Model the fold of this input.
Amino acid sequence: MKGTFALLDIAGYVALLLWGTHMVTSGVLRGYGSALRRWLGRYLAHRPAAFAFGICLTAVLQSSTATGLMASSFAASGFLGLAPGLAVMLGANVGTTLIVQVMSFDISIIAPVLVLLGFSIHRRSDDARYENLGRVAIGLGLMLLALHLLVVALAPVENAQALRAVLQALESEPVLAVLCSALLTWLFHSSVAMVLLVGSLATAGVIDAPGALALVLGANLGSTLPALIEAHTPVARRLPLGNLLVRLVGCVVCLPLLPFMAHWLAPLGDTPARIAVNFHTAFNLGLAVVFLLPVERMARFLVRLLPDPPRPDDPGVPQYLDESALDAANVALANAARESMRMADMVEGMLKGLVEVFGKDDRVRAAAISRVDPWLDRLGMAIREYLAELGNEALNEEDGERSQEILAFVINIEHIGDITANNLMEFAAKKAERGQDFSADDIQDLAAMHALVMESLRLGLTVFLRGDLRAAQQLVARKETLWRLENEASERHIRGIRERRDGSGDVYLRILRDLKRIHSHLAALAYLPLERAGLLQDRLRAERA
Done:
């Protein structure tokens, strides 16, 4: 029974270590995920910057697995190129070794201090960022406490015959040791936990240095599996597969040399635990040196190996709403924004042909515009459901605001699609049935309003993608210009009707009205960023004055 209790203790302490890692990762992503997303998209065009960012990000998240999942989602969504993504993963692999290096020393004395400090920050702060900072401190404290308890729990196991027999069998079968360690690492979702556990076993004398190195190789291999397994499309699998192939090459090269490597690393620390930790660092540094330069060629190879799937025949099917990204709010929001841009592209295509539809009675173009609206409705529904699944509890204040921006954008784009497909195309059909012709002045006024709407659409996309306050102010200011154009066009058209003495002006006036409604939905895209910046009320007061 003592052995059973000891195994339960070890399992519980490993679970505590994993929970501490989860707290650190979730705290960083909730508090600073949006800033990380901006860095990923803005500064990682070059390999050295991507490599350095991978090191820093993993050091902050305390998990190369979390970095891999985040980078894979961004690469699949197009926010991160495949070659920079591979460089990020090489840096992440080095970053996780730095965590192991620090935690391999006996620093458990600061665990209670970190937990107490994190608890105080979390309970006493109303700022979400500070609350998540406290969460990170608690997670680090739990990780250190779990490592200390693991060492204590493994001490009585040192003489357990069953465990010794299993590990000695693995020492004589290094390939089997690598596979078993990879499986355990995949179950843990943490190479840090596995390498530290190997170090604890080596410290307890349960396993020798070459056997520990084989288990470390397995930990490196197994840490690539979660991101690969959770990727559901060929494009999403490219980055984790590249990381797996890099680690696999390293394992194949190092496996026959383990006894020699244990001897070569002995001067840096002669205990099996220190040799295992130093080998973990040397292994990943070596892979980074070898593979950082040819990442472009690796990216091309992965694209050939996993080509882009054919586009679905139904444009209303979402392409970027990856369910596996819902655990990371910033990644999920980036996916939702990417899908929202597909809706914007569809609406832009609908609006482009309006003047031709009314000027030339182009029924084929009108039918094509009407077919787009059901696709927009289905995409909008899918995005709203995706954001609802994300939930408010996973969002910090900034991510919550971004979620509201995406939701408002989707709703306004849907309304624009409805007005275009239902109202305007209905008016086009009535115009064709009645055989009505607009005058040259009418077509010119319609073209002027249409051009202003198209320019406002581009401004609205700039506001949505970049939060550009200057573009937002310009977008709202254009409302007055469009209202003036509508009034002038209406007056000219009514004068023309009186001169011709016919009653055929209702269709044209309704078209002008609906163009103004479309512009109002575009201007609404500017309200949220202007309100956050405190500029909306000033604008409204100026309009009333």
The first helix runs from residue 2 to 43. The chain has a mean pLDDT of 81.
